[in-house]
What does this fold into?
Amino acid sequence: MLLELTTIAAAVFERRGDDWIGHLLTGDRPLALPEIAVELRLSDLYDGLTFTPPLP
It folds into this structure.
């Protein structure tokens, strides 16, 4: 999993056979981590953080 630094988003990768499949999650989508039996909202990882607009 790679978390975005400037907005609520993550690139999540899962292994299927010999392949790695990537998914982009944004906003309040659920983030499932079945290997450790955990599911949480992506926005919970960013709780308490504020983002400033990027410079032009």
Summary: Residues 6 and 55 are 12 Å apart (CA to CA). The mean pLDDT is 89.
